[in-house]
Amino acid sequence: MPLKKSIVLFFLFFIPFEFTIISWSRKVVPEEMLLVSEGDFIMGSNEVDLEETQAELGNRKPFYLDEHPQHRIHLPGFLMDRTEVTNRAYANFIKIRVRNPPPPWKEGQYPSGQGLLPVVEVSWYEARDYCRSIGKRLPTEAEWEKAARGPSGNMYAWGNKFDQMKANVSAGGHGGITMVGRWSSDRSFYGLYDMNGNVMEWTADWYKPYPNGDYESPDFGEQFKVAKGDAYGESGHYAMSIFSRLPYRQNVLPETRFPFLGFRCAKDW
């Protein structure tokens, strides 16, 4: 066979086959998720409560100390739900998996017109099981914080200056829960909505000290799970911006259900 003809046949039959293999193996981001790219980010803070706000308010946990020390972490890429899991999505889960609905639902149904509100009053175990049922998982605390703060370690989803009008946060007094994705300004560097407000969110991790942290707490260990993010104005929080700071760590018993606590799912990339 002439050399020129052999080269032509090679390109006709072998090269397209190689392209097909590449296209089959290409990763696809599901429509409801976004990619948080691989790289470093800033976690925690080095802030100090110089005004002794914790003592003034009688808050059980000292402010900032469990966020120490601020440190840089490298994470591989991962996927995160664009919004919090909604009532509509969770209703489908309990129907298929024959699970109990959240306590406020009447006759197993969420209130009419609230399908796109984030589901709340779900325990950590129920949130975990929902994510597993669709091939996902709860995000780690580090993943959640990176997704919210971005690679530069923003204190809030939009930057480093607090603005109570940019999210459905406790200090804003905006009322109750709102539809997911409504707050266009509460959108992180990676495009995720409601990371700063609307409802707090479960993470996968136990409430433990950060590496090299010097704060000791009887709450550390495998007894509380970490919840992240602020919640709407009726969440029981004091109307203070400190709770809207993305490094803030809330420790919650995993069997707890709160009317201001929901979740979103993550997935390996």
Question: Can you give a write-up of this model?
Answer:
It contains five helices and nine strands. The protein is an alpha+beta fold and 269 residues long. The chain has one domain (29-268): paralog of FGE (formylglycine-generating enzyme), CATH 3.90.1580. The strands form three sheets. A four-stranded mixed beta sheet has the order 7-6-5-8. It has a three-stranded antiparallel beta sheet with strand order 1-4-9, with helices on one face.
Strand content: 5-15%
Instruction: Give, in order, the helices and strands.
Output: HEEHEEHHHEEEEE
Low-confidence stretches: 3-25
Number of domains: 1
Annotation field: number of helices? 5
Coarse morphology: globular
Structural class: alpha+beta
Assigned CATH architecture = Alpha-Beta Complex
Report Rg.
22 Å
State the CATH class: Alpha Beta
Task: Tell me the distance between the termini.
Answer: 46 Å
Strand tally, please?
9
What is the CATH superfamily?
Answer: paralog of FGE (formylglycine-generating enzyme)
Mean pLDDT: 88
Strand neighbour order, sheet with most strands: 7-6-5-8
Residues in helix, %: 10-25%
CATH overall fold name: paralog of FGE (formylglycine-generating enzyme)
Features:
269 residues; alpha+beta; paralog of FGE (formylglycine-generating enzyme); 4-stranded mixed β-sheet; 3-stranded antiparallel β-sheet; disordered N terminus
